[in-house]
């Protein structure tokens, strides 16, 4: 028996349709949601990500602003741009594309963003609010994973979830969201003992470690749902390929459902960014999130 593929592209399309509907309603009230994207330097992958985000904004009716700065931009100049966007009442969401050039302190920059406009959910106020269960802007990739899990399993209460990886961007907020959904949560990392045995106990496995195909069939309980966050570029058979942190072919016969790479979690990240932008716009105008 082969696992069911969790179609992230289809799920992302549903989210973007919901966002477009909300944008139409806001525009009918004279509110035009706007997302500002700040890109520093010439990292090719970052340019691709920004292009995809701007395109999705346009498809949903969100106004986008791009601020492209040269790699030699000083931290002070970047902070001045963020301060300008913070003060602009017509800008609802601010995203600074990572990574930043090495001479700029990423933490200092992310902390400078108004937490109410922090659509990436990286500001410490939003991170703390998430851990406390308050309604805050949530990191897009973990939020997208939760949407896929709920679409696949429905109620997650009582499920044992294992998160492999403890990054601030994915692992830690993922664990917080699973706890909020009443899962029993284990977080595995490089210092965990008997990691494979612990992972094999899980009903849900979320792999977010950045190591290509590390998670094999011996990590997965038969019938578990596997969410593969990893996006790793490797050379294989003379070609460049994108693969996940999960050995897809090995795990496919074991799991009940699994996300492919590409086409799984990736599309959801951008879709939830658009969702966060609309949420921010609603909150800034005194409306409850939907």
TrEMBL record:
One of its GO terms (molecular function) is methylenetetrahydrofolate dehydrogenase (NADP+) activity. NADP(+) binds at residues 165-167, 231. Residues 6-120 form the Tetrahydrofolate dehydrogenase/cyclohydrolase catalytic domain. One of its GO terms (cellular component) is cytosol. GO terms for biological process: L-histidine biosynthetic process; methionine biosynthetic process; purine nucleotide biosynthetic process; tetrahydrofolate interconversion. Its EC number is 1.5.1.5, 3.5.4.9. SUPFAM superfamilies: Aminoacid dehydrogenase-like, N-terminal domain (SSF53223), NAD(P)-binding Rossmann-fold domains (SSF51735). Residues 139-284 form the Tetrahydrofolate dehydrogenase/cyclohydrolase NAD(P)-binding domain. It catalyses: (6R)-5,10-methenyltetrahydrofolate + H2O = (6R)-10-formyltetrahydrofolate + H(+); (6R)-5,10-methylene-5,6,7,8-tetrahydrofolate + NADP(+) = (6R)-5,10-methenyltetrahydrofolate + NADPH. Pathway: One-carbon metabolism; tetrahydrofolate interconversion. Keywords: Amino-acid biosynthesis, Histidine biosynthesis, Hydrolase, Methionine biosynthesis, Multifunctional enzyme, NADP, One-carbon metabolism, Oxidoreductase, Purine biosynthesis. It comes from the Bacteria. Homodimer. Catalyzes the oxidation of 5,10-methylenetetrahydrofolate to 5,10-methenyltetrahydrofolate and then the hydrolysis of 5,10-methenyltetrahydrofolate to 10-formyltetrahydrofolate. Belongs to the tetrahydrofolate dehydrogenase/cyclohydrolase family. This is Bifunctional protein FolD. It comes from Stutzerimonas kirkiae. The gene is folD.
